[in-house]
Predict the structure.
Amino acid sequence: MKFCSECAHPVSQLIPPDDNRPRYVCGQCGTIHYQNPKMVIGSIPVWDHEGDTRVLLCKRAIEPRYGYWTLPAGFMENEETTTEAALRETQEEAGAHIELHELFSLLNVPHVHQVHMFYRATLLDLDFAAGTESLDVKLFSESEIPWKEIAFPTVAYTLKFFFTDLARIRREGGTYALHTRDVLTPMRQSAEG
Ligand code: ZN
């Protein structure tokens, strides 16, 4: 940030009194511009036909990671709940009609100032189509997932958690669990041992 959004005066980075980290502070009107993580919300749309379980992925038509595959997800909007965001993003990116279930994964990505959340969902019909932010939308069984072409680590983790839970449930019954994970830079990972 270079200029104050209140008065357009240049801002500078300093630690305000009673604070402990640098903030953008306006030298003219004194506004402190706090910056906090953004929420990225998505769904795991699942189509199950006689035990053949497939997940709907979107091929990205936008940067970053143009041409790579992702679960439908995007930035949460103001005035919206997390479930509304998951439904909206799934509709916008995949044109998919889903029934939303419980929260399935929560992943912190501190170095990009994001928290990602994915809800498990049932695909209600096969009437889906790529939205403007997708080049293609397709169902994948576990063996068909293009692991090397997955756009983001949070999506790869979520897909791995999902198929691991699915295999466990098929083997011994039970239910899906909530999975959490911190996606750290290699530097921070080694610092934290
Ligand atoms: Zn200002």
Summary: DSSP finds three helices and eleven strands in the chain. The two ends are 33 Å apart (CA to CA). The chain has two domains: 1-35, 38-182. Residues 1-35 form a domain with the Ubiquitin Ligase Nedd4; Chain: W; fold (CATH 2.20.70.10).
